[in-house]
Specification:
By secondary structure, this protein is an all-alpha fold. It is rod-shaped, with a radius of gyration of 26 Å. The longest helix is centred in the C-terminal third of the chain and has 48 residues. The relative contact order is 0.12. Helix 2 runs parallel beside helix 4. It has 4 helices and no strands.
Amino acid sequence: MIFRPLWVLMLPLTLAACASDPAPVEQMRLTEQTLSQAQTSGVSLEHSPTLQQAQHKFSAAQAAMAEQDYKQARIYAEQAELDARLAESQQLTEKSTQQLVELTTSINRLRKQLGGLQ
């Protein structure tokens, strides 16, 4: 029974420690990697509003990290990662669409050539 008052005093400190968010170091690294990968795949900041938005959110995440607002930093970093992935997907979709148009044009040209041979 002697330890009970000590336990009661330690409980709020323990709960406060659990409530604080850890620094999202891994999420920040992943987001930075995803932004870099999007640019490597051909997405340019000048032509992609989605990638611009991702970069802006990553900057906000870095600012939140500097202020030790880890919860907000994690939120911004996660959003930036998703925006970067979306920008990359949009770029890949655009490339695929262009390739499809080129293939369709080639097929139609070949059909005309074959039709002329018969």
